[in-house]
Design a protein that fits this description.
single chain; alpha/beta; 6-stranded mixed β-sheet; 9 helices; globular; disordered N terminus
Length: 351
């Protein structure tokens, strides 16, 4: 567990993986049926890593992967129109809505204003945002929460739960940078803890580099982060409340949950502790959703929880779509994902 005087990590478990149960989505209720009150599911619009910047039309990642900045905005616009047409009741963006280049070119305010005003702010349904590393490169946490409509109260926290009471569904949004260099100031306890974790686990002078690290140790990089003990306790309380309400819960974060879904650099620093909380409550938690990795990923763990990672809008070819409609069928115990473009479809059952 994370502690104020240092950090301890539980031994990582070996997870028995099931075969990928994804298949083509079954037919779903039509919009006309929904308007007549026949919809027996909650439809969530899902997208990740728009990472827009007005600084250039195209670019590339540190590893040379092409990035399509201008078209990322257009893809996000088309996704919003898709969510409207499908009458999504909630929309979830999994983080990194603005690229760090916006700040480098002194265009942060322009980038946030345009991407929100021209896309997600055009929706008249709840829009939930995960905090991403690129978000924190551009704005300090308090301003970022205000921009994204996160009710952070006085503690400026960026994690919260959204409940759909009449559908017996809760969506818990975690902050993967709660313990991190990013979004914290010199002298803050969580920053001191993050510095200690990095110094003990990454010997490189440049902490964004995982050079020389092996296996899962590669997750200890500066653009990563972890979940504090405080946030884990909060999550346990919210899960208990969902159990009392007889709700199922989806848990979302920008940072990835399970090592079988992504490269190690995209995992929570203390992913094993996060998984321990989720898996000890698998009667309530049915799925996790994450971004950050820029490539789609999936696994189902031995406790029956589905772990889904979304591909990034930013790195899809010009004109290609990358979003999904996620239908949670409460009465049937299944989640149907209708993927568009690079976003793979799937059907997932739960108890």
């Amino acid at each position: 567990m994370y502690r104020s005087g240092g950090c301890l990590f539980r031994t990582t478990k070996n997870f028995k993986m099931n075969n990928n149960p994804r298949s083509k989505p079954a037919a779903t209720t039509t919009a006309a049926d929904a308007r007549m009150g026949k919809r027996a599911f909650t439809r969530i619009g899902l997208l990740s890593d728009i990472q827009w910047s007005p600084h250039a039309e195209t670019g590339q990642s540190f590893h040379g992967t092409p990035r399509f900045y201008v078209d990322a905005l257009e893809k996000a616009k088309r996704a919003v129109e898709s969510f409207k047409s499908a009458e999504c009741e909630i929309v979830l963006h999994l983080g990194d809505i603005v690229d760090y280049h916006a700040g480098l070119h002194d265009r942060t305010e322009e980038a946030f204003e345009r991407i929100l005003d021209e896309t997600l702010h055009r929706l008249d349904v709840p829009v939930l945002h995960c905090i991403g590393n690129h978000c924190l490169y551009n704005l300090e946490r308090e301003k970022l929460n205000a921009r994204l409509g996160i009710d952070a109260r006085e503690d400026h926290r960026s994690y919260f739960v959204h409940r759909v009471a009449d559908r017996k569904l809760a969506i818990a949004v975690l902050d993967g940078y709660d313990v991190s260099i990013l979004g914290t100031s010199e002298g803050e306890p969580k920053r001191a803890l993050a510095e200690k974790i990095l110094s003990e686990n990454n010997p490189n002078e440049e902490k964004n580099s995982n050079k020389g690290l092996e296996g899962l140790q590669k997750r200890f990089v500066k653009f990563g982060g972890g979940v504090s003990d405080e946030q884990l306790r909060w999550l346990e309380r919210e899960i208990a409340e969902s159990r009392r309400r007889q709700e199922k819960m989806i848990v979302a974060s920008h940072v990835c949950f399970h090592p079988r879904t992504c490269v190690p650099t995209c995992l929570f620093w203390n992913y094993d502790e996060v998984l321990a909380v989720l898996q000890s409550n698998a009667d309530v938690v049915v799925m996790t959703l994450a971004g950050h990795a820029h490539r789609g990923g999936y696994c189902q763990d031995e406790f029956g929880i589905h772990h889904l990672v979304a591909a990034a809008i930013l790195e899809c070819e010009i004109g290609e779509a990358c979003h999904a409609h996620v239908d949670v069928h409460h009465d049937q115990g299944k989640i149907v994902v209708r993927g568009f473009g690079r976003f793979e479809p799937g059907e997932y059952t739960y108890r």
